[in-house]
Write a structure and sequence with these properties.
This protein has eight helices and ten strands. The chain is an alpha/beta fold. The strands form four sheets. The protein has a three-stranded antiparallel β-sheet with strand order 2-3-4, with no helix packed on it. A three-stranded mixed β-sheet has the order 8-7-9, covered by helices on one side. Strands 1-10 form a two-stranded parallel ribbon.
Amino acid sequence: MSTTAGVFTETQLVNIQAKADQIWLDRIQRMDFVPEAEIVKCIIDQTTAKFGDLKGYKDKKIDVGWINACDVTDGSCSDCTIDGSELSTNIEEYYLNRERCAEFSVCENDLIDNVFDYEEVVAKGLLKASLALDEWWAAQAVAVLNANVGANEVSDGKGVVSGTSTYVLPAYWNADLMSYFARVARVNRMRNPMLISGANLYESVWTAELEACCENKMAKFGTMDICFDLFNIDSTNDPDYVTYMVNKGALAFVTKAYYAGKSAANPAKYMDQ
């Protein structure tokens, strides 16, 4: 046991991690700690940027890099030469400036005659803290999407463009709408698009999956990756129902996790550091 609040020995941390893994592998117990954060998983899956190592402790900075080939154009010429704009690997530095804490405490004296051991209680506390933080990040992801939307170049068809939003009547939200989405992606030069949605299309896709053996509706939905998050997108955009079309690599998600301990003057320690 730890004699100082917030200080854990190497053995204790290993035992806590082992207990957390054991809880997570239990199908019944795991359900209590699965976050409703599908939008974050979608962003991570479609991320193509490369991340450098975190810099600093107080100012948490990270390098995000990608290959820039935006300046390649065509033009008239009389000689074929190896020339033109030099491709670059752009590095942009970002601060990890959205911070969130999830705190809990455990009193060792309360566990002296308890049926649960110390490691299991702490492990469940960490799993619950992780769930709370994941679901907070999900809401932040929706806010980032809303802050970075672009204009739709398709001004006709089933959607009515107004600024950076495209409005589609409720009657069109079925499998046939995928042909419109395919045209939107093509005209807007999205080579590898995906849809991130709340309730829009959820019931249609769910029904189509069950009816796949009898009808061919699922083939239409299968033309584009679709990610549903029923807990964050619509609640953030209420009263509107919003679906985002995102090109692969347009978004990136990176975090750093650490244990702050009881206070700034008494931080958590691992192997005396």
